[in-house]
């Protein structure tokens, strides 16, 4: 037994060293802003990651395996930490919003270029803020509180990334607690911790999605532990960092239990309260972003864009979004209103996350990180595929492989193909089981 455990740690350690080598190789082009080269090197990281996931799903038990998993995860993030804002400069806007709040100004009131904020400008952060001439902040109230807290330790890109890593550490601990509550090996946290997206998007880029995922993971373990108040609080906090945690609410709610919704609403109100002075401006740049990304007219949605490219009738973005919202509502109702088991089922969360991604078809890599904790608890190959294929979004848009229609077809088309194969195999297995049961009933033993 001891020899088998040592062999397990050795195999995982070798994969971990290969993954660290891939991270180191990918850092070099990031330092020089060579994103196409970074994207292709990330595929080497994906290959090692896929082998590690296959291995951990089969052999992932034991404290030694967990320690190797966590050590490699920490070292990978240390490698990515020196990266400049090459993949995204969003964190510079976070710093600015934190600075504005520290000056006692509501961040929703003014665009960065407004004369009211002239005294806050510097030569390090302000010149590099995206959309500073026309866009108020788009980030919700809980995200703003994170920005304010983080910038009190320092107004720099590195400090913001360290703050996101601290929040990500909370997420990783919560994932392990959730796995233990599900009766699964905690080492399955590798599915999250070794994935290229959180390494580069949090340690390398400092995206605030780390905070949303931390709260989402706390909601998962709270719901699993039958603590609806805490689940509602955590879910509200996550939703007011980035909206996607609300997608999983039907999977966490026990039918007719009012405590989680009540805690959600109370927490949301409390978090928004400091910013209500901005009135309707509290919605920030949301409407402008929808137009900028082509969501209003439809080209920002993959299925609409594909239909138009094929010469098929296609709705406007608003009509498509309404139809998608109805589809998500129907799925949410089917999950929320049926008779639930004693505790939430991870596969319900998988179904909601999969449908949401396919309908909304995001085209930024960091918009996919939030599904990784769910995959730790219920591995679903089509969703795992979509989470690694999205590294193709790092490719420049003016190249063939970086073209939005091409890369979306590879990502979402591959997801649909794998989902159909998975569904076919499961149906075949169920039919075979039913056939064997019928044979047994007709020809009982003895």
**How widely separated are the two ends?**
40 Å
Taken together, the total number of domains comes to 1
> For the CA atoms, what is the radius of gyration?
23 Å
* Series of secondary-structure elements, N-terminal to C-terminal: HHHHHHHHHHHHHHHHHHH
* Helix proportion: 55-70%
Looking at how many chains there are and whether they match, the oligomeric state comes to single chain
Tell the overall outline. globular
By secondary-structure content and strand pairing, the structural class works out as mainly alpha
**Largest sheet, if any?**
none
Mean pLDDT: 91
Stretches where pLDDT is under 50 for at least 5 consecutive residues are: none
Q: Provide the β-strand percentage band.
A: under 5%
Please give the count of helices: 19
Q: Count the strands? A: 0
């Amino acid at each position: 037994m001891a020899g088998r455990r040592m062999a397990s740690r050795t195999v995982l350690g070798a994969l971990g060293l290969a993954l660290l080598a891939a991270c180191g190789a990918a850092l070099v082009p990031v330092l020089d802003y060579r994103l196409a080269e970074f994207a292709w090197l990330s595929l080497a990281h994906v290959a090692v990651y896929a082998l590690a996931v296959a291995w951990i799903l089969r052999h992932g038990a034991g404290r030694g395996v967990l320690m190797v998993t966590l050590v490699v995860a920490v070292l990978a993030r240390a490698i990515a930490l020196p990266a400049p804002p090459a993949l995204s400069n969003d964190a510079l806007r976070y710093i600015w919003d934190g600075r504005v709040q520290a000056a006692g100004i509501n961040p929703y009131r003014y665009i960065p270029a407004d004369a009211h904020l002239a005294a806050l400008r510097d030569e390090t952060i302000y010149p590099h803020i995206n959309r500073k001439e026309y866009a108020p902040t788009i980030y919700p109230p809980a995200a703003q509180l994170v920005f304010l807290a983080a910038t009190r330790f320092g107004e720099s890109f590195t400090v913001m990334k360290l703050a996101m890593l601290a929040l990500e550490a909370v997420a990783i601990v919560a994932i392990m607690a959730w796995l233990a509550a599900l009766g699964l090996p905690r080492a399955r946290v590798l599915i999250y911790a070794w994935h290229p997206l959180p390494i580069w998007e949090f340690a390398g880029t400092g995206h605030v999605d780390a905070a949303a995922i931390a709260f989402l993971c706390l909601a998962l373990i709270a719901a699993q532990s039958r603590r609806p108040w805490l689940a509602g609080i955590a879910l509200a906090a996550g939703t007011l960092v980035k909206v996607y945690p609300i997608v999983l609410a039907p999977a966490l709610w026990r039918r007719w239990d009012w405590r989680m919704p009540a805690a959600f609403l109370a927490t949301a109100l409390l978090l928004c309260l400091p910013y209500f002075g901005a009135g309707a401006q509290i919605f920030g740049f949301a409407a402008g972003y929808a137009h900028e990304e082509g969501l209003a007219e439809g080209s920002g949605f993959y299925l609409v864009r594909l239909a138009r490219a094929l010469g098929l009738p296609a709705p406007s973005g608003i009509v498509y979004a309404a139809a998608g919202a109805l589809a998500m509502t129907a799925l949410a109702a089917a999950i929320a209103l049926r008779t639930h088991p004693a505790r939430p089922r991870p596969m319900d969360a998988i179904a909601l996350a999969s449908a949401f991604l396919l309908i909304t078809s995001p085209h930024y890599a960091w918009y996919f990180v939030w599904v990784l904790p769910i995959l730790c608890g219920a591995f679903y190959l089509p969703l795992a595929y979509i989470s690694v294929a999205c590294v193709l979004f790092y490719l420049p848009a003016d190249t063939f492989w970086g073209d939005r229609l091409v890369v979306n077809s590879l990502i979402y088309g591959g997801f649909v193909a794998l989902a159909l194969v998975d569904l076919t195999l499961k149906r075949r297995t169920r039919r075979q089981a039913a056939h064997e049961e019928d044979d047994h009933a007709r020809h009982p033993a003895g």
